[in-house]
Each structure stands twice: as C-alpha cells, then as structure tokens.
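seq:
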Amino acid sequence: MSPPPAKTLSPQELAKLESAFNSDPGSDAYRPLAEAYLAAGRFMEAMVVCKKGVKAHPGRPDPRLLLARVYAEQGKDKKALEELQGALGVAPTDRAVLRALAGVQLRSGDAAGGKATLLKVWEIDPKDPETAALFTQWKVELPKPPPPPEPPPAPAPATSPGLRAAPPRLSEVPGGPGAMPQAPARSRSVNGIPVQRPAAPRLEHEDDDVTPLPKKGHATRFVFTAVAAVAIIGGWYGWGQWKAARDIKLKKSLKEASEQLRHDSFASYKKATDAAAAALDIDPNSALAHGYLAYAYAIRWGEHGDGDEARRLSEEQLASVRRLGDQDSRFADAAEALLASYAGKGTQALGTLESKIKALDEKGQTSAFLNLTQGIIQMSVGDLERARESLEKAQQAAPSDPRVYSALGTLYRRLGDPRAADQSYGFALRYERDHPESLLGRALLALDSDSAGGMPTAAVSLKKLLDADPPPSPRQLAVAHLARALLVARVQVAMSGLSPADAKKLAEATGVPQDRAAAAALATKEDEEGFALDRNNPELHLLRGKRLLVEGQPDAAIREMREAVKADPSRAQAYVDLARALMQKPEGARDAQEALTTAIRTMGESPRLMVMLGQVYFRQGRLDEAAAQYTKALADGKTKNPEARLQLGVVYREKKDYPRAVEQLTRASQEFIGQSSRIAESLTELGRTYELQGDRTRADEAFRRALDADPTDADTYFFYARFLGADRRSREKARLAAAKYLELDPRGEHAAEAQALAR
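struct:
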C-alpha cells in the first residue's frame, strides 16, 4: 500500500486535473486527480474522487485499490480492508490487490491472514518480483518447491478375458455354512416412486396382484384427516400469500419514503410523509415509518416554515416511536434533536446527540445521518470547527448525499472560504440536480463578495429557484426574493465603477435595470414579496440589513439585524452579522462588543462568538483582551480552531512577540485543512511576521507558499509586492505582483499603494 511518493503538483497543474475530472467524471481522470490529492495530504478530496471512480467503474478493481490506499495512509485499516475485499470481489486473482491486502493484514496484526494472502498471490505467479519483495519486507519465508511425485504402484495381474469371476464360497454366504440365501426385499411404488419393504414369508396360494383393502373405520378416519389437512394447508397458504403481499407493499412504501428523504427538497419531504403514512396504513406498528414521519415533519417545520401543524405531527410520531420501545431509531433521534434546536435549545440537543454518537463509535459504527444532524446544529450555535468535523465524518460515510454537501457549503461560507463553499455546493448539485438549498447557498455565496464577477452566477441560481416546478418551500422562495433584492443593490454599486459597455453587459447578465429608479423599484418589489411569504423568518431581516448596508444606510441596516436577533436569539450568525454592521460605524465598536457579550451570556461561550469578540477588541486596540478571547476559544484543546490561532498570531505580532506569532500562524496554516484561501491568509501573515523579524529568506518562502496555496488571493500579491519593493534587486517582481493585485481587486483596500508600486 506504499507506492513511490507522487510529485506534488503546482496549483495550475492541479486545476487542470480538476477541470478534466469535472468535465467528465465517468472517465479515468479520477485517478491522477485522486493521486495528486493524496500526495498533497488532502485525504477528504482524494476519498471523494475515488468513490466517484468506484461508482463510475464498478467492474474494475483499480478505483477501490486507490481508495484503500487513501484509507491506509490515514491509518484506517478497517476501511482499507473493506475496499480491498470489494476489489477482490471484482477481480479475485488481481495480484496488485492481493499484495495490498496482504500488506494491510500484516500491518494490522493479522499475521495468519497476511501470510495466507501472500501465499495465494505467490501461487498465481511464483516468479513475480514484487511479490517476492513483499515476502522479504515482512520476513516471511518463501514456500519451498514440492518434492517430485513418487512412481505409481505396479498394476495387479489382469484377469484373463472371457473368464467369469468365481462364485462366492459357501462360507461367504450370510448366515454361514448351511444357510440358504434370503429372498430379496419386495418393492412397491407410491405415486410412481419405488419404496422398499421387507420381504414376508411366502404363503401358499398367495396372489401377488391383490392388495388387501383397509377396514371401514380406518377409511373414514383417513378421509377426515386428509380433508382437515387440506383445509389447514390451504388456510396457511392463503395467509402466507396475504402476508407476503402485505410485506411487499410495506417494503415498497418504506423504500419510497427513504428515497424521497434523500432528495432533500420541500416537495420530496411531502412525498416522503405520504409514503410513510401509506406504510402505517399497512402496519401501524412500524417504528421505521413513524421515524421517517417524525424526521420529515421536523424539517418541514423548522427549515421550510410549514407551520406549527408540522411540528405537532413530528412530536406525535416521535412519541409513537418511543411508545413502541424502539430506542435506537436514528431518524427519531435526529428528529428529536432538530425539534429542540429549532426551538432554541441547540446546546441541549447536542448533549443528547453526542452521547448517542459516542455509543456508536464505541461499537465501531458510524451514522452519517446523526453526524450530519450534529454538524447542522453545531453550525447553528456557532461552533463551526466542530461542525466541520461532524460534517466531514458524515461526508465520509455518505459520499453522495446532497444534504451533507449543502451543509458543508454553508459551513465554508460562514468560515470565509468561498472556494471550498462553491465546490461543496457544486457536489450537492451534481448528486441532486437543481438542489434548492444549494442553489440558494451558491447565490448567497456570490452576494457575500463585493466583486461583480459572481453576480451573473447568483442571478442564474436565483432564477432557477424562483421558476422551479415543483416550487421550493415558501421559506426558500422568501429568502430567494430577499437575495434578489440584495443582488439588485450589489449590481447597482458595481455598475458605478464600470464603463457604459461593461455596465450594460452586467445588466443583461443579471437582469438588473441600469436605471437607478427602476432598480430601486425592483428591489422593493422583491423585498415585499419575500416578507409576504414568510414574515417571521429572521433570515429575511438579516438579508434586508445587508442590502441597506450596501445602499449606505447603516442605521436602518442595524435595526433590521437587531430584529433578526430578537426573533431568534439562539442563532450565532445573527450576532456576528450585527457586530460586523456595527463595526462599520465610527463609534460602533463598543456597541458590537455589547451585542457579542450579550450573545455569549445568552448562548454560552460559542467559539465563533468568542473569535468575533476578540476581533472587536483588536479593532479597539485592546490587544490583551483580544488575546484572552482567542486563547479562551482555544482552551478546549479537543477541537482545532485555526481561525482563533490565526487571529492570536496577528495579535502577538502586533505586540512584537514574534516567536509566539510564528508558532500560532504556522499551526493555523496547518489546521486549515483543505481551505486554500485560509491557508494563503495564514501564510501571508506569517510572511509579514518574518519580514518584521528581519528574516527575509523565510518571509519570501512564506509568501511563495501562500501564492501556491491560492493563486487568486489578492492580499497576498499586495503584501508580497510591498516586501519585494523594499529591495532594489526585486523591484521588477514587486511591480508585477502589484499589477496582479490591481487585476484581482482594482478597488480594494490597498489599491492606491498598489498603484504606486506598479508604477
């Protein structure tokens, strides 16, 4: 399982492989891409790509072999063995698979199994040098060649042809000397089947063709017994036929409910409840059907705004599961946790879920379903790093579930990693075409950016959602309308900095009028339609607040965000958005601090809120208090929190404590696994720290690594340009880096200084 290490590819080479795979996922392009991810230590991405290779090529062993390598390099020998056994099911004599299987068996302590597998591959080809090398590596003695065969024994003398064998002697006859040979057993047939019976002494004048009739009483009892037997057998047969037909209908209804739940749309949850209800009509005591209903109604209530009736029905079905004594229903467990979370008791819900997941872990089992639910609730309360761990576990166990990928997309969006977010939404849309939540997530992701480049994508996603048939839920439609109002405001701001020709192109691509009055009327219309659909949804207030901020109305924006917090005080993201809005006001830092302190007092010490509070202290120049908040966010020790490490490293640098700054920034760059933009940010800050420390060699290396991690990060180009510009020998490189910054972010925070460097 340990082939020669693959060459680490440049970001450009990796992008080409990703493009080739995305354009044709069913081709062999999965292999080089998975190997590149594996070489870079990006195990999650390698695993996802390999599983797609397995799905695209089910009759070939090589994708499973590569997936086993991914697991083996993470120390997950049990999963590696499962994949290798699957590969053997496809190709039982494949030497590469057998060698890999032997290696994993021997490494995991199964010496007998490993040696048996080695012997099997040796028997297939005793001259194979790779097999011989494996025997040497594990110090297993090669089998000795078998001894030459012994000569066959001499044949017995043949009997002369035509002679018959001698009759047996008298002494060989059963009964001994003087005994007469016994008559053979007589035979008769029943229904054409021969039946032997012992021979009886022959009576004089006995007629072999006559069979004696049964007596009269015996015949009556025989007829009665036969009729009763036929009746019983017929009854059992009829009942069996009825039960078999009933079981088939029940199984079909449950399967339909399960498949509809997987589609993760408002329409599919309605179909799932219909199918599960049909299953209960067949078997009112089906705990699985009750569990499906509890889960589907919980999501319809909490995520889709389907009214309190859905909540009541979910609670009723949950009570039915518990009444039936099924304490291990994962759908019921998930429904119970979601109901608590939607009611503002997310921390309580997590406590119950964590105990159930821990019990499964102790048995060596993983529930993608419960890990997904746990990740969604952790994200809601603001524990984003633990949410990432839970969702990644769910994704590993269910690599084609669109709901998992959509949740990952939302998580990465909140973590500030747009590239990872977009990729996750893309996977969700690949497995479930026009997945509503992912279309919405992709649009909101584009609208989070000030750049006009993503606006056409946002416009397309929102149009698909608003025109969908069957339509999404009223809640999703309402959010889509408010998102379109935000799109109008974003496009209007972007147009003010474009040439008339470019402004016209952007207007055509997004459907936003160039005329300001017409655009304002469109935004107002979308706003009103959204609130008419779902007036009590806190998300709508947050989106309206963001739009008002874009339009230059910070006070009105803050009022809307406070409404969102008031409507749902349990959502960490609402406080974060409010604090950001407050920080845009000249004297808003103190109000932001108060809002976050209130949030922590209400919700507990959420890592997300503590990091945001640290940023507020930092903006006020209160470095010691900022460092204390970041340290507190890292105090758990069980969970990685690279965001807190990144911010703590910056604080140490500002305090000129360069060794501790280097330590925290280095660890942050290592813990932002798979998040290229955040890795680049950490390495950029590390380069700036080395520059201040006077170590230009390490500074240059850190900046280069940052550009390798994310060649599209504008800030890295600016700080690298400034670093290069301090040395006459690298002025030309500085000019090129500054020009690249201006190309990526022409109206960015550092645009004026970058223009000077570019000149």
